[in-house]
Amino acid sequence: MTRRFYDRLAADYHRIYADWPSSVRRQGEALHRLLGGHPRRVLDCACGIGTQAVGLAAQGHEVTGTDLSPAALARVTGIPVAAADMRALPFPDATFDAVVCADNSLPHLLTPEDVRRALTEMHRVLRRGGRLVLSTRDYDEARRTHPAATRPSVHEAPDGRTITFQLWHWHPDGTHYDVELFQVFPDLTTTVHTTTYWAITRAELQDFLQATGFSTPTWHEPEESGFFQPILTAKT
């Protein structure tokens, strides 16, 4: 389901943002600061069309991108990419200085077993003292309030405006939800893409990190980091 969601969305993914090139720059700058402000060898293990990976490369990092979606990877420019599942990364042990898993990618994994497998793989490909940079939605708040929708975003382009918004359908367990992502294009045609997420809380994420060998988990709020989601960093 996740691969199909991103394969179908890939051609118009940039329209989620009001200004995608500016978002690439801002996110790259924010992640660069979190990585210590100097170039590193980085894996973006859920790179999509390259929003974070391309931004980091522009800051001087040696970035490799992987993603489940070949259609999304086909849009990435300027860095090497490979189609891969974050639960089975195709790299030797201790290959990277940092692994980035941003923009709510990990919560596509819907069971504790799959989350542990992915984090174990991220730990494996990091060198000793390497850093994990993980961002998700603020699911502590979402688990309390169970929102039904997101606010619409508007993408301006020469052909007109594209409006993107999501409807959320919570499962009876109160921890998983199905998403319908709507895009309304300038000619008023509309697409709907569906996927499922696990609303993993901060405490749950920290427990997963510690169980898979990471240390010093630290949260960085958007007001501090300049990134648009809360970020959790940890070290091997």
UniProtKB/TrEMBL annotation:
Origin: domain of life: Bacteria
GO biological process terms on file: methylation
CDD domains for the chain: AdoMet_MTases (cd02440)
Sample GO molecular function, one term: methyltransferase activity
Database matches in Gene3D superfamilies: Vaccinia Virus protein VP39
All copies of domain Methyltransferase type, residue ranges: 43-134
Keywords, in A-Z order: Methyltransferase, Transferase
Keyword Ribosomal protein part of the UniProt annotation: no
PANTHER family: METHYLTRANSFERASE
Protein name: Methyltransferase family protein
Organism: Amycolatopsis thermoflava
Native organism taxonomy: Bacteria, Bacillati, Actinomycetota, Actinomycetes, Pseudonocardiales
